[in-house]
Amino acid sequence: MAGIELKSNVPAGELKQKWSDFKGTMNLVAPNNKRRIEVIVVGTGLAGASAAATLGELGYQVKAFTFHDSPRRAHSIAAQGGINAAKNYQNDGDSIYRLFYDTIKGGDYRSREANVYRLAEVSADIIDQCVAQGVPFAREYGGLLANRSFGGVQVSRTFYARGQTGQQLLIGAYQALSRQISTGQVSMYNRHEMLDLVKIDGKARGIITRNLLTGKLEKHAAHCVVLATGGYGNVFYLSTNAMGSNVSAAWRGVRRGALMANPCFTQIHPTCIPVSGEYQSKLTLMSESLRNDGRVWVPKSKEDAIAIREGRKKGNDIAEEDRDYYLERRYPAFGNLVPRDVASRAAKVACDAGNGVAPTGLAVFLDFASAIERYGKAAAHSKNINNPSKAEITKLGKAVVEGKYGNLFEMYEKITGENPYENPMKIYPAVHYTMGGLWVDYNLQTNVPGLFALGEANFSDHGANRLGASALMQGLADGYFVIPYTIGQFLSKEIRTPKISADAPEFAAAEKDVQDRLNQLMSIKGNQSVESFHRRLGKIMWEYCGMSRNAEGLKKGRQMIRELREEFYKDVFIPGDANEFNPELEKATKVADFLELGEVMMCDALDRNESCGGHFREEYKSEEGEAQRNDKDFTYVSAWEWNETQPVLHKEELAFKNVELKTRSYK
Ligand SMILES: Cc1cc2nc3c(=O)[nH]c(=O)nc-3n(C[C@H](O)[C@H](O)[C@H](O)COP(=O)(O)OP(=O)(O)OC[C@H]3O[C@@H](n4cnc5c(N)ncnc54)[C@H](O)[C@@H]3O)c2cc1C
């Protein structure tokens, strides 16, 4: 694919006008033509369900696919803390520009201005849409919608439904989708996994799926294909993602010519329950919302840290003056609410210095004692309790904290056996989100005509680091408000294209490719489980392409992945048969794709000789240990073409006309 020109297709004009001008002048598809046009949407998380429902409502014939048994099982359901919107309900200085600016800065100046501005613009509509659907956002006493803060910002713009925001939003999107399913506008295919993309004359025209219950391969045709298949954090094996989250649909797109953008930009979330053993297969997030009230610290002295690690002391035994609230000390302007990349690195620095507090030495404290006291005093005051006792204050304060974060505290206690109201939580960074994804233009179209990507599956809006509560915003912006317009740019040229037939030879060829791939995997009959390969891949990724990276390690990591891939194809063992329900085979196809993606991630991280956002190259840091960007040479989006011998890099240069490129500072 030499000489691919990556056209962002950003409309001309003033930043603030681009989206409304675009909507006012874009090509339309008339209702009578919409009825004849078929659209495949793969994925029914927040991005996919909102897209499928809205495209159905518009009149397109939609076929929606998920490997889950119901759209409501998508990983989006796990989202805890909230969703951003520039509503300025708090009257604290928020605006569309400020959300745009925070997002560009938070992403360390590695995202496209026009896409991010549009995201900020439509953010307010999302809240209205969801309220109209009945999403039970938290409200103030007087009935107004409540907000809290997330990292990297100085306003409160995060809307939330306790610690279950994703679940509530997904129920809203699912309702809208169900309505379209009931009218026949959307045909729903649960337990169907996309295993290949079908192109005809260079355009995406369908997919090959496997019915996961029967093992049967199926061909599905449409005028275009929308992928909303989520992120690939599970390439690290251990992550906060749902166990089923994977890269395969996107990667099959890459294998058919789409480009993977910024694959090495991974978000490591600072507040997760630390790893506790070798056989763990899942990590649990403690929402960033907790940093509104929780204070992060480690003991100042290594002796205290060792005593805690060995169980001789507890966090509460450490006197106030012997604690290092290192985020408040290092970043006074943002304190505990610095962005995730900054907070994660700071935790690593504290633990690497020997001040970590779990038996492994890999944990820091997240402490609610001050918040409990502060809220308790306020509650006593409003209840007219004069000179309340410490016990009264603590009781009242705990009730307030429970009201805000109760389900998260309960989850923590169930997993760790420790009561976080009594003792500070122990937390450590873990893989959480992938900013990288399929390269898309302003229309959310990949470089393959007719193939679109939404939500976490694309790379579009978060640059090198995503701000908290911005993924839900982006997924729903893409699905409810962006793709319903931008898809028309492609489909308006397809109104004369008759129904695409799955009998076309391209479908038979793609189906054969899939069958051959499955047969190859089944025939290996080796000695090692799929899981063991996945775990080993994850360790390589974490070690060499994790929270910090260097050139030597990345080269080594890449070589190790290539060797692991070779071993996989010689020695993996998959029981059962391809033509039946076979979860091991499902895992194997995913791990096979991760083994290719992992190599591209190493190449991407090696190419980017700078530190930015979640991509921290040890060679490029300031004297204070902060990330050091290189704007002169690296202000571009990396878009990778797969090639077994050497993946090929294509670049989209980024232009910043509305914000000044500055060193990101939260001090
Ligand atoms: C624990 C946790 C908490 C989070 N909290 C927040 C938060 O508070 N605020 C926030 O903004 N973000 C949060 N995030 C991030 C956010 O939840 C995700 O980025 C977002 O939900 C992704 O939505 P999506 O629609 O793009 O993908 P997903 O919800 O992952 O959906 C992917 C869909 O694709 C389908 N699929 C995938 N591959 C295939 C295939 N090959 N064939 C068929 N179907 C396929 C799946 O079945 C699923 O339906 C959190 C993430 C985690 C892990």
Please, could you describe this protein's structure?
The chain is α+β, with helices and mostly antiparallel strands and 667 residues long. The protein has a domain at 269-431: Succinate dehydrogenase/fumarate reductase flavoprotein, catalytic domain (Flavocytochrome C3, Chain A, domain 1, Alpha-Beta Complex). The protein is built from 18 helices and 19 strands. The protein has helices at residues 15-25, 31-34, 46-58, 96-106, 113-133, 165-182, 248-255, 302-309, 326-330, 340-352, 369-382, 390-416, 471-491, 505-524, 530-545, 551-571, 583-607, 631-634, and strands spanning 38-42, 61-65, 83-84, 158-159, 186-189, 192-200, 203-211, 217-221, 224-227, 260-261, 266-272, 295-299, 323-324, 364-367, 425-434, 437-438, 451-453, 636-641, 648-653. The protein has a five-stranded parallel beta sheet with strand order 5-2-1-9-17, sandwiched between helices. Helix 3 (46-58) links the parallel strand 1 and strand 2. Helix 4 (96-106) crosses helix 5 (113-133). The longest helix has 27 residues, at 390-416. It starts with 14 loop residues before the first helix and ends in a 14-residue tail after the last strand. The model has no long low-confidence stretch (mean pLDDT 96). Flavin-adenine dinucleotide binds next to helix 3, helix 6, strand 6, helix 7 and strand 15.
